[in-house]
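Hey, can you fold this?
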Amino acid sequence: MSMSDELRALDELHQRGALSDGEFARAKARVLGLSAPGRSEQGVLALNRLTRSREDRWVGGVCGGLAEFTGLAAWILRMLFALSVLCAGTGVAIYILLWIFVPNAPAHAAPDAAGFA
């Protein structure tokens, strides 16, 4: 079986739902002789999704962004930061560092005159 035949068979299995996206990517990488991303690379890719929120922000959007990233409620994270302020001000330092180093979420595209984004 040639490489193109194997890729075509994998694509058909993926289209039918027999292979998940991750399984398809790993099988395709194996056929092409490439290495699939390791656990450390997957962690870095997941961490790159962390952004400060534009909608759920009180000060800098850090708690809203962490809430979107972790799935926790933003009020829980805000309360944790407020309580950590009582611990020698570590909450303030952590919040400021996250505010500086975590990028803002990308702005949503504004619709043009025809109403299309």
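Oh, and this one too while you're at it.
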Amino acid sequence: MKKLMTAIMACGIFFPVIAEENDYRLVWSDEFDVDGAPASHWNYEKGFVRNHEDQWYQPENAEVKDGCLVITARLEDRPNPMYRQDSRDWRRQRERIKYTSSCLTTSDSFSYRYGRLEVRARIPVTGGAWPAIWTLGNRFGWPANGELDLMEFYRTKEGEPIILANACWLGDNNRDAWDSVRIPFSRFLEKDPMWASKFHVWTMDWDPEMIRMYLDGELLNEIPLNQTVHGGGESHDINPFSNNLAGFGDYILLNLALGGDNGGPIDDSQFPLRYEIDYVRVYQK
């Protein structure tokens, strides 16, 4: 594969970029080079959404500044407009909004099947932070649509910070099945004590047989797609990551969650939290 080395400015820093030729071509990207609101191809999740997370999602917490998309998590204290005292829905049971953040997606504008997804980002690693780079299938409900988590960071129930690379699909007995790798964050700090202050590159290579997820060129997870066939329901025997269904693809999500089922106790003393994304690029052969 021929590689052309160039240099561009991102977040105030010049760094080399590899432009792929021959084997791969760039088919979609956002370089976040125009300050202000994110481009119109991003749409937003709103309110309390999933996993009993503590943040209220809203567009106002996302902006493009100095060559990066910045998702900011903030402390808040305001009424929950969805609150219902007698509701059994956890989204409506909360009387107050204590935190806000953003989740941006390409669900209305872009999805793809096979190729290379590359994201350069700097993530917050304080208590309660749950940043992610992931994709969801654009057909069926979860988990039949398939979920690919190129990056998640959070703390285990024992308080140990970890970085994850996962795939999820509908398995046997109509239950979610997972192929998940959980790497202690201490492993990265041992290599570089300043790891958290720097930008890093997450890459996912996806073809009809395999999905491979990398962090700074290190292979984290390798998922054979012959194991991800659905076990039942309307999508019986359909593989969300390898099929011939017209229009079936994955869209991209970037979000900073807080607390909830996996984020752990939130350290209010560290707010506001910043999750900075330098670029998002999709290549295909």
